[in-house]
Hints:
alpha/beta, 28% helix, single chain, Nucleotidyltransferase, domain 5
Amino acid sequence: MQPVWMGIVPGPLATRVLVVDGLPHTLLTARLPHTPRHPRAVATLAESLALWVGRRVHVALAAAGPGSFCATTGWLDTFEAVTRPQPLVAITCVAHDVVPADPRPGEGLGDFEDVRALLRRTVAR
């Protein structure tokens, strides 16, 4: 059974989320508002996906590096919740060096290749 991985990359204006079932199969791509409004939002989102797919979800949260934009109060409040052990979710804070570009009009959600690369690097560890 392939692991389910979630990459979360806070950008300057939005947070991008990519969920894959194994690395080649995309389950979900999303652009969410930049900052979570509740400290448990990240953990709860990951737990909800774990319940949906019936498997543990491994999360790579871009929390350091030039490609991470999470030095806001909302994100800082989140880190306490994501570091607590959880039965269905494993959250790891990782570095991300790619500064995300916002999609141009008509490009939909934009390119998530840097998030996919982040997940490949995290899985390889």
